Amino acid sequence: MRRRGFGQVSREAPVTAADVAVVGGGFTGAVFAIHLSRLAGRPLDIVIVEPRERPGRGVAYDTDDPDHRLNAPLQIHFVYPDAPDHLPGWYAERGGPEAVDPEAMGPDGTLYPRRGEFGRYVEEQLRSHMAGNASGSAIRHIRARALSARRNAAGYRLDLSGGQTLSARLVVVAAGYARPRPPPPFAGAVSGHPGFVADPWDTHRLGNIPADASVLVLGMSQTASDAIAVLLRNGHTGPITAVARRGLRPRPKPETAAGLPPDIVDRIRRPVSLFTAAHGRHGTALSLLRTLRAGVRRAEASGGDWFGPFGDLRDSVWDVWPALPLAEKRRFLRHLRVWYDAHRFQLPPQVEVRIAGAEAAGQLSFEAAFCESAARDGDALSVTLRRRGSEERRAERFGAVMNCTGPDLRPDRSDNPLIASLAARGYAAAHPTGIGFAVDAECRAVGAGGQPDPHLRIVGPLTYGAFADQQGAPFIALRLCAILPGIAAALQR
Question: Across-strand partners of 3?
């Protein structure tokens, strides 16, 4: 007998019990498990449910591609906020970043290591704590997907792929980004065309694109730049066209800007954020924008640049965002988020140089345009493009189309069966902004009835609606470290 629903699980499936089930074994899940094992007042049984063979890496860091680099300097990435020298020390034990990766150093002497190396570091820290930790807790990795969740007397029961069932007192959803969905013109039959690359992180698919093919890139984000850099490294000679509705690309870090401040942890941990301390509370997205622009003008008048004032806002979102009314959050997401992201996410200089070279050579072009339609055309795809602010349309034939539109954090669009299960059963409600799930300040999931659930925590990128910028490693790690003492205390009872 089998039950159908969010997954298929045998009724006779073996049941595993744990104190804590962490669903998602990327950076967020690994850091949660590491620090919980360090803080717990008694030995806990912690299970990480992650289908990947190498826990601690996730989508972002489970890559061996040499062009996939951290987009911010080594110094602001950490697993242990109170030990900022731990990661540099790990590199030093291996001969230093330059020995592992001679191209890691940027023009200003700042290190931008490969993402796979950082993933290796996180995995090693997790495995070290699996081998032994301060509380004597057991950390196990189950290679499976969580398919559905149901409340039970202990807390929650999870049905896993492979027929296993996991019962846990506390479930922590640490899932990261969903794969980008095909834009409407590319949905349906077009998405199955061999020339449509749905997953820009699939370097094998990128490697199979013919070198002389005309390539259309949907999006201009860091992901798009990474994919283009891989094509160029593979010797691609055909034309590459990147399109985005507003035509906004990651803005280069000004040459006059100093490196990221060494006190990044203190900047984010302040009782009152830098931006609020300097400018007071803001009730509208427009007033935030005006204050930021005024700060940039003052900086430029004194020989500075936009990077400093913007950095103060970036490191203050944990304080600024929750104070905005819901209508203003929605206004920001509708009108300003794309501008914020273009300044928030710089390219690693190594990738930026490669992109600039291809653009200067005329091989790579960027357009503010969007796709109106797409159709199969033999071994190619025929796409109709319309420029922003114009009725001009043109049809072009592309040998390959890469979907780099970015992750989708709307729970109602997720192809993750656990997320669909939590939403459908009312255990976790979508945030009112539509992005991620609703949680309280302690990351307890707020269900359809409006009450936070102490047995279900949601952490990481899926809390964007509540906390805004939960995408960079320092923001995620510091949020986890803020809520973990309370979680450890609750599990002690």
Answer: 9
Render pLDDT for 182-200 as a digit per residue (tens, 0 to 9): 999 998 889 999 999 999 9
Q: Cα–chain-centroid distance for residue 374?
A: 28
366 in Cβ contact with 242 (< 8 Å): yes
3-state secondary structure of 393: strand
User: What is the Cα 35 distance to its own chain's centre?
Assistant: 20
Domains and CATH numbers, the chain: 2-178+409-492 (3.50.50.60), 184-250+347-403 (3.50.50.60), 264-344 (no CATH)
| CA–CA separation, 261 and 6 (whole Å) | 46
Tell me if 13 sits within 8 A of 167, measured CB to CB: no
φ and ψ at 137, to 5 degrees? -70, 150
| Token pair for 486 | 């309370």
CB atoms within 10 A of CB 283: 11
How far, in Å, CA of 178 to CA of 182, rounded? 12
DSSP H or E segment with residue 486: helix 473-492
- Alpha-helical segments (H) within 132-208: 203-207
Whether pLDDT at 12 is above 70: no
Residue in 340, 342, 338, 315 with CA at minimum distance from that of residue 252: 342
The helix or strand, by DSSP H or E, that contains position 139, with its residue range, turns out to be: strand 138-142
Residue 410's identity, in one-letter code, is R
